Structures are given as C-alpha cells and as structure tokens.
Request: fold
Amino acid sequence: MFGRSKPVVFDSYGHRRSRRVPRWLVLLMSGIVIGAGGVLLIQERYLPPRLSASESAALVTSFEQVDAERLRLQTALADTTRQLDAATAERTQATEELAASRRTVEGLRADLLAVVDALPPDPRDAPIAVRAASFSVEGGALSYDVLLSRDRGTGKPFEGVMQLTVAGESGGGTERAVPLEPVKVSIGRVESLRGSLPLPEGFTPRQTTIHVLDRPDGKRYGMRVIRVR
Reply:
C-alpha cells in the first residue's frame, strides 16, 4: 500500500546553514565609504582650509563692521544727494531771480533813456552832457544827484572822473572855492551818479561846478554850474 520511505539524515553536529550578506548592501556601504573618503580628500587637497571657531567669529565680526560701514555710506550718499538736489533747486531759483532782475534793470534803463531824451539838452553841447543835477547839504557833507549822458552811437564807455568844485563861505565869512574828492565814472549811453562828499568844517556852499574829466586835473569833456539848495 505504501511506497518505499526515504531515509531521514540527521546532522549529528548541529550545523546551521550560514547567512550571506546581500550584495547590494555591500555595494551601498562601499559607496558610502568611498564617497566620504573622496569628500575628505578633496577638502584637504583642493578646498580652502576650514576655519576655527575664533576665526569664524572674527569673520562674522568683520562682516558686520563692513555691513555697518556700507549702511553708513549709503545714508551719507542719500544725504549728499538731497543736499545736491536742494542746492540745484536754489541755484535754479537764483538764476531765475537774476534773469528777472536783469529784465527789470533793462526796463528801468529803457525808461531812464526815455526820460533823458525828454530832458532839455546841455547848453554847452559838450561830449559828456550834464542833463540834470541837484545838490544839498546834509550833516556836513554835500549830497549829489547827477545825470550824465553821451551821444547815440558812441563806442566803448567813457572812463574818467567827475570833479565837483564847491564855491561858498568858510567859517570866517571868506569866499572860496573848494575842490572835492574826484568820483570815478563809467558812462555808456547814460549814467546816474548819487552819493555824498565831505565838506570842510564850517563851510557853507552856494553853488557847485561839475567837471567831467578823463582823469583828475585832465582834459575836460563836460561842465555845468548848479546852485546848492
């Protein structure tokens, strides 16, 4: 009924079959070891040396100082830019005001020329005409307001002096003529002179003679006598 039974073999020494490590695990471990070694080799031979803790702290401190200096310079640059913009705006405003002032002066000069042309001519018909003048005494000084003109079409301005000679009485009642300090003039088409000159102490002027000269005590180009008020 039953087939032949096979013999059963018993291991008398109790040996167990040994377990082998998988090949993939061996390759994985080998790759890890080789990679770590390569990283260490590259780091030691080709990369900069690693910093110590103190060197790293010093590097951080230097970076913070450089960054703070960068921020300071950035703030200074912004302040300088604002100042430059403000200065540019002020200069533009000053330029516009100067242009407006020049236009005003030109308008006033044109009005003055129109007034001068309307004044009576100098009766002496000299190269430099004394078109109008007024004198008064204020605080021991002779205040003057003189208007001089030249003919149209003249060349460069006339450079010379205005010499005022005042006739009157001294403190003792003596009549005399006193020349005052020359006043420099530069006459283009018309020139208005206004100012004051000191008089001798106790001197009472009655009239003033206006001389227009090329230099003190030089050639005369215009003259007129005006009473002192």
About this structure: The first helix runs from residue 23 to 45. The chain has a mean pLDDT of 83. The CA atoms of residues 51 and 57 lie 9 Å apart.
